[in-house]
Design goal:
Helix content: under 10%
Keywords: Signal
Strand content: 25-35%
Low-confidence stretches: 1-28, 744-749
GO biological process, one term: carbohydrate metabolic process
Strand order of the largest sheet: 1-25-24-23-22
Shape: globular
Number of domains: 5
Radius of gyration: 26 Å
Mean pLDDT: 94
Pfam families: RGI_lyase (PF18370), RGL11_C (PF21348)
Number of strands: 47
InterPro entries: Ig-like_fold (IPR013783), Integrin_alpha_N (IPR028994), RGI_lyase (IPR041624), RGL11 (IPR034641), RGL11_C (IPR049366)
Structural class: mainly beta
Largest sheet: 5 strands, mixed
Amino acid sequence: MNLRRGVLLPLVFTAVLAGQLPASAHPTPGERLDRGLVAASVDGGVHLSWRLLGREATGATATGLSGPGFAVYRDGKRIATVTDSTTYLDTGATPGARYQVAPVRRGVPLGRSKPVTPWAASHHDLPLRKPADGVTPAGERYTYSANDVSVGDVDGDGRYEYVVKWDPSNSKDVSQVGYTGPVYLDTYRLDGTLLHRIDLGVNIRAGAHYTQFLVYDFDGDGRAELMTKTAPGTRDGRERFVTMPHEDVRAGYRHTDDYRLSPEGYRDHLVGVFRGWTSHPEVVAGRWPATLEQAFGIEQRYAYPLSTEDATALVDHFIDVYAPSRSANNKLRQFAGFIVDGPEYLTVFDGATGRELQTVRYEPGRTDDGLMWGDYAMSRIEPGNRVDRFLSGVAYLDGKRPSAIFARGYYTRSTVATYDWDGRRLRKRWLADSGWVPMTNPFRDSPHGRDGTNPSHAKLTTQGSHSLSVADVDGDGKQEIVYGGATLDDNGSLSYSSVGVLPPGSVEPGAEARVGHGDALHVTDIDPNRPGLEIYMVHEGARSAPYGYALRDARTGATIYGAYSGMDTGRGMIGDVRPDVPGLETWSSMPNGSDSGGTWSADGRRLDTRSPGTNMSIRWAGDLTTQIVTGAQDVTPAVEDWRRGTLLTATGTRTNNGTKGNPSLVADVFGDWREELVVRTQDSTALRFYLSTEPTNHKMYTLMHDRQYRVDVARQQTTYNQPSYPGFYLASDVDWSRVPLPSHRLAGS
């Protein structure tokens, strides 16, 4: 990765064949992780927890997977041998003791792990360096808090580093007006060493929908890279601006540009749009009204093409008369802080140094301020909304190497681009694009639910979620992209777009309609008695959607069960919260006590009128059941078990993203197979890592060595954070003989 900075390499479109890849691009059985040993002081001694690596698992037992036993050492002396798990409680602990573990084969201990000393409690604080406060162009002050976290081994030492997104206090949803402070991406070691800081600059707006950052070893060299959307003004980890294309420099773009719109700037922007009305391709083609007066439903007033004076008069009419007539919430005189112009880039950074490796154009570009995307068509006029809905993820599209996914749009036009990084050059693998959604009048229409203009992907529109999932849904060894209600095959073709029949009480009973957009998406083996994987998703289409929630077959997209809600069903979750019932349970934010609310079994039986929380799940307990992380806004987070109550109260910490209540990360980042809870301290001076110290007799390899789980962790940071799931059934009633062994599965790949 010793690229010279300042060279913008061309973006090459290619379908990379396995035989053409460099040797470093072919995956080993999971990341090259170390033993991940941690020690925590608890009542009764010191709790030790460590990894069983994927390649070490050899078969199944009644309670877990077989593999090496482990010798446990305190201060160099062997004190125990553990065979049925990868945890141990040292009841004879001494102050300041140093612990190691070593796998035992044929009675002989092999290489010992690096020594560790116990944490003072069951959590560890990683010190953070909070960015300085700032002031917007409108004179508003803002502060910073730690937000989403992703992980990767950026230096190849077998231990994860942690990439922290810093969000300003004026971070915005895409529907909210106002300036935001810039977003920063920091990379830390677990001891708090700051490796570098990337400053995305003023031309990347702050908010959950804008910055999607991927941390992954894309080229197979054992060190993770970082990819994210950038713009003029972005500085890499060495505080150098990213490379602008020569044509952008020649066009006059500069890193000192500030594309954030003031209310006056937005008015001027619209004047330019209106002056060019007669030359807009949709007007020229006769698909849109020939004049703006026709579009607004008023008498003809001006000659076309419009002069600046006449365009200004029509802009004032649009802002002050037409827009408020559509909705009282259309207060476009207050429109500020949005970025609807200027170059957009995608940059690969070296994970260890933050150095820019390559910058290319972000595809597709915005084209306009949302006019073509339907942002002016609905009664609520929201420029810069649908056009700036971004998602990201990682997928093994060829079954061998990871590809990056960057998506734009899911209400109307929907696009998904995939890329391969070989250590030198970013190559576009494919771009799936629904095409524009036709409108008869961009200022008064209902574009949701219509086909796009690209025949091959026309039905991708309106199906996307506020997240995406990646899974091998057809069992061919290659991963597909579950884009909410639709799924893209590994080659970018549209596998299916799920539909249903609108029931009584809907907008058009008996008509077929897309299942549609939703806020929560979960993909794994939910019902072990059915072949393959399942998808559980909630939908916000209200009376225009056939379901408020639905469980679907991941291979075909067919609905297994679901229920109409007639409302925006905004939350949904799955998990093993009833270990007495086979499979994972499902539940959503349907009103508890209603006919379709409550908790449901994997085979569609209603189990309870009540349901657990829906913000985030976690594998915390030792019995393989699922727990829920609660706490949103200014409420202390907790780990709750639906049967047993509160298992952990994370005093002094907070979750993120308002009512979403997302931890910074939930993932198996060290220790045994269970997930750690990573949350920010209340003042964001540290990330706090909570370790489950509950006893377990289950032996399982680290979940990070399951391919689907690992890419789900990389995806967890995107927009509305969703849990990470393995590509197989894992719950309290798991049949261990059916758990795939990474060493066996990948040996022939």
